[in-house]
Design brief:
Blueprint (H helix, E strand, L loop, with lengths): L14 E4 L11 E4 L1 H4 L15 H14 L2 H18 L2 H4 L9 E3 L2 E5 L5 H11 L5 E3 L3 E4 L7 H21 L1
Antiparallel strand pairs: 1-2, 3-4, 4-6, 5-6
Helix pairs in contact: 3-6, 5-6
Amino acid sequence: MWSHSTFPLDCHPDIVTMAKPLANGFPIGAIMVRDHIAKSITPGSHGTTFGGSVFATRLAHHVLTRLSSPTLTAHINQVSAHLQSRLSKLQTHFPTLITEPARGRGLIRGIPFTDQTIPGKLVDAARQRGVLLLTAGKDAVRLVPSLNVERAEIDFAMDVIESILGTLSVDQ
């Protein structure tokens, strides 16, 4: 479920902090720590503004249970692979705009551009066509779909992106 979990254990962080998304927007805060760190945390040595209420922890338990379900994780893996297959073609189709492969992992991806004016133009044009994108720095567009995104929604968004890039590449 955690991005670092696919790396070797010696690459895992000692401490991971979590907050509102843990309880689907309800205020909560939590940390996940390695065993050797947990042994040094004693009652009273750690405090939190949004930790520990029964309702919040029950919500967090429900959210984590849903997020870690094999059905959802399989779905995420499938649509992530499909998104990657669509993104991998952009560099070939638009070599004057994109010279590097898409960045990121899973459903959190970034499309890097050679011209810093392109991300803003793409975000604006995509919004007009019903696709919400974010800029990431000066040279990239970030794609962050919801975890329950469907393959057809990925295709729609990528079709819009490819159409806009086709227009922008002609203007270059």
